[in-house]
Amino acid sequence: MNTSKRQFLGRTLGVSAGMAITALLGSTRALASVEDVQKAIAEFTGGKAPAEGVVTLTTPEIAENGNSVPVSVSVESPMSEDDYVESVMILAEDNPSALVATFHFTPASGEAVASTRMRLARTQNVLAVAKMSNGDVYSATNNIKVTIGGCGG
Amino acid sequence: MNRKLLIVLLGTTSLYSMVSRVALADPSEGPLFIDGEIEMITRTESVEGHPLPEVISGWHYRTESTQALEADSFENPGMLAVEEGEVLWNTVEGSEGKSCASCHDDAAESMATVGASYPKWDAGSAKPINVEQRINMCRVEKMGAEAYPFDKGGQKPMTAFLKNLSLGEPVRIDVEEGEMQAWWERGKEMYYTRTGQLDLSCASCHEKNNGKYIRADHLSQGNVNGFPTYRLKQSALVSLHNRFRGCIRDTRAEMPDAFSDELMALEVYTTWRSQGLSVETPAVRQ
Amino acid sequence: MAAKPRVKVPKSAAAGDIITLKTLISHKMESGQRKDGDGNPIPRDIINKFTCTFNGKPVFSCDMDPAVSANPYFEFKAKITEAGTFTFTWVDDAGEVTEMTKDIALK
């Protein structure tokens, strides 16, 4: 695992230094690589580094089961024919595969607001990257604690 | 109260080692309204003879986002199965060319509160029967159709559909009918008998330690008013007997079969304990 | 038998209103990450695309990956300018298409 790239990603997206620790400690299960996450974002944004703000990501602080975690995004935009939000990509950094879903909006959406439910393999950061019709990109990151229950079945 | 709790904890060493956070977390505030309209009784005075003063729905023990999922009947994924059950109600099956509706017409009328009062005494088999078994009796005896195997075919959707018709109705059970009292006694004995390598009884978790955490699971009173329940872990409806078996397996004991006399006795007893709480089927739990 | 998808659309709206739409469909969303009882990987089988159009024009869509939960749920918005028909489409890995329509009137 490449720590420097992980730190770079953390800085770029304005996320906590806790990620670097995660990278140093490594993991016992297959996770999306830092490179995969970066590549996915770069492909989505056309190589542009996302700025902070504009996009709001709403998730619970604690998920009592990682199988169904609500996630909502909301992006500030007039949603007019020449100024609207094209897409929002959601990524879960420490899932086996980081991509969760990509929402596509149009001016007919009225507002760039959408919700779904996602699977999280463990406690981790979830990112939303928004791409505007003029090519600007923004992102937001939330940490979600996924608890492991005591009872199976 | 605190001294009593301490004694209980000291006396249950195997459980004590598993309760990672001994601090009590109070069940959350309610009330629970489904779609902002149907008020659920999620806390109520328990029936006479109940060891706990108040019965509390498992809904109170869940996180906000799990609670919200149950409160919206559109978002609740368990409702997909309820709708599937409604289709099955009107589907002709078996040699007699009948559907459930052929005899019972509109379930919303004929079955309005039925799901809230099972298990019932069945004189024919001289045993208590639950909704799943009642459906199978109709299928075999009236429709000439095959009985649903446990948790298979339309069993969970049909059970969820029928119980959901009683949404909000308080759970009740007649333990005076037939020999129900003997089954109640047997269920009670099971409830308090420690089993498995972990030496746990139902009461170890759900009576003596409800409100505490077992690892990260917030222990509820184990009430049965929400079954079949949409469980996030399985991302599917989970039947009561499946959950009984899951709990028993977690104590590392041999699991009795679904609908066996043991588990039917346990259903009679746990239903008696859950009386007064609204039917929440399909409840949403972790 | 799979349950029918559920969609929630207001019956009517005033021109210029932004309405909320909700959809829920029954699907196990097999991630491809799990193994069966014999240790063999269970092949991926998910709904990978959801689309909503209004009178044929795109409103909202979603490309889905295996991290979308079983029984996928979506909530999103639409700006109403005329009466018409919403068409909701789900496509899974096997190419199976599920479609549903809902009409909305102008107030």
Characterize the structure shown:
The complex is a heterotrimer of chains A (153), B (286) and C (107). With 153 residues, chain A is α+β, with helices and mostly antiparallel strands. Chain A has a single domain (5-144), classed as Sandwich (Immunoglobulin-like). Chain A has three helices and nine strands, in the order αααβββββββββ. Chain A has helices at 3-12, 18-25, 34-45; strands at residues 51-52, 55-58, 62-63, 69-75, 85-92, 99-105, 112-118, 124-132, 137-146. Chain B is of the alpha+beta class and 286 residues long. The longest helix of chain B is centred in the middle third of the chain and has 13 residues, at 131-143. Mean pLDDT of chain B is 91; it is low at 1-24. By secondary structure, chain C is mainly beta. The relative contact order of chain C is 0.31. In chain C, a hairpin with a 4-residue loop joins strand 7 (84-92) and strand 8. Chain C has one domain: Immunoglobulin-like. The chains are: A alpha+beta (153), B alpha+beta (286), C mainly beta (107). At the A-C interface, strand 6 and strand 7 of A face strand 5 and strand 6 of C.
Write the layout of secondary structure elements.
The complex is a heterotrimer of chains A (153), B (286) and C (107).
Chain A: H1 3-12, H2 18-25, H3 34-45, E1 51-52, E2 55-58, E3 62-63, E4 69-75, E5 85-92, E6 99-105, E7 112-118, E8 124-132, E9 137-146
Parallel strand pairs in A: 1-9, 3-9
Antiparallel strand pairs in A: 2-4, 4-7, 5-6, 5-8, 8-9
Chain B: H1 2-11, H2 13-18, E1 33-34, E2 38-39, E3 43-45, E4 54-56, H3 64-71, H4 78-89, H5 100-104, H6 107-110, E5 120-122, E6 127-129, H7 131-143, H8 155-164, H9 180-192, H10 202-206, E7 213-214, E8 217-218, E9 229-231, E10 236-238, H11 240-250, H12 261-273, E11 284-285
Parallel strand pairs in B: 9-11
Antiparallel strand pairs in B: 1-2, 3-4, 5-6, 7-8, 9-10
Helix pairs in contact in B: 4-8, 7-8, 9-12
Chain C: E1 6-8, E2 12-13, E3 18-24, E4 47-54, E5 57-64, E6 73-79, E7 84-92, E8 97-106
Parallel strand pairs in C: 2-8
Antiparallel strand pairs in C: 1-3, 3-6, 4-5, 4-7, 7-8
